[in-house]
């Protein structure tokens, strides 16, 4: 029996043991690091839900949506608010209220439900044909023709401009107000 071979093999085993121990420590450190990164990624993720009726592309640059997205959502809001019949008004106004921000919801709901009651009582139908959209910072203006009827009698045939005040919070469009723009007040000095 050669003692040098035995000593050489034991030192080889010790070296191999140290290498395996080092690899186990590195693998454990990698496991802890990837677990932390996965936890952080899950915690910071955001889900943005886009209504199914959206047809164009939606782009957000530094938290601000593209003008095309704002035009399309503005057209949807104007359509829900101004094109109705006595049978569809309440359902459309319910759908419109989904867009409102929580702090504006109570006032808007009282206003739209009151309007729905008056529409059902007086049997008024309305159609709005948008012609021009103007998108500014947190304001969308829509200009177009408004036609209102009761039965087959035309009540009104005018042009109107509506102002939509909005905010985008965490990628969600939130409606703050929907009002008719007062053009006479702007013309007077």
Write the topology of this structure.
Blueprint: H1 3-44, E1 60-61, E2 64-65, H2 67-82, H3 89-97, H4 102-122, E3 124-136, E4 139-150, E5 153-169, E6 172-180, H5 183-187
Antiparallel strand pairs: 1-2, 3-4, 4-5, 5-6
Helix pairs in contact: 3-4
Could you characterize what this model shows?
- With 189 residues, the protein is α+β, with helices and mostly antiparallel strands.
- The chain folds into two domains: 45 residues; 128 residues, Nuclear Transport Factor 2, Chain: A (Roll).
- The protein is 49% helix and 29% strand.
- The chain contains five helices and six strands.
- Strands 3-4-5-6 form a four-stranded antiparallel β-sheet, covered by helices on one side.
- Helix 3 packs antiparallel against helix 4.
- The radius of gyration is 32 Å and the shape is rod-shaped.
What's the count of strands? 6
Number of helices: 5
- The CATH first-level class of the largest domain comes to Alpha Beta
Count of individual domains: 2
Q: What characteristic shape results from the CA principal axes?
A: rod-shaped
- Strand residue percentage: 25-35%
Average pLDDT over all residues: 83
CATH architecture of the largest domain: Roll
Which secondary-structure class do the elements indicate? alpha+beta
Key terms:
189 residues; 5 helices; disordered C terminus; alpha+beta; Nuclear Transport Factor 2, Chain: A; two-stranded antiparallel sheet
Please summarize what this structure is.
With 189 residues, this protein is an alpha+beta fold.
């Amino acid at each position: 029996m050669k003692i040098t071979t035995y000593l050489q093999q034991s030192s080889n085993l010790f070296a191999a043991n140290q290498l395996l121990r080092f690899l186990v420590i590195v693998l454990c450190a990698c496991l802890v690091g990837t677990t932390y990164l996965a936890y952080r990624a899950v915690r910071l993720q955001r889900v943005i839900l886009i209504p199914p009726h959206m047809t164009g592309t939606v782009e957000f640059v530094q938290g601000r949506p593209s003008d095309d997205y704002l035009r399309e959502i503005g057209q949807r809001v104007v359509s829900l608010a101004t094109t109705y019949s006595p049978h569809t008004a309440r359902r459309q106004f319910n759908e419109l209220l989904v867009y409102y921000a929580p702090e504006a919801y109570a006032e808007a709901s009282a206003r739209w439900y009151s309007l729905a009651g008056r529409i059902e009582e007086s049997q008024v139908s309305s159609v709005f044909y948008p012609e021009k959209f103007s998108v500014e910072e947190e304001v969308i203006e829509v200009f177009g023709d408004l036609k209102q009827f009761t039965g087959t009698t035309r009540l009104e045939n005018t042009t109107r401009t509506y102002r939509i005040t909005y905010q985008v919070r965490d990628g969600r469009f939130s409606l703050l107000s929907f009002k008719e723009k007062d053009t006479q007040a702007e013309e007077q000095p």
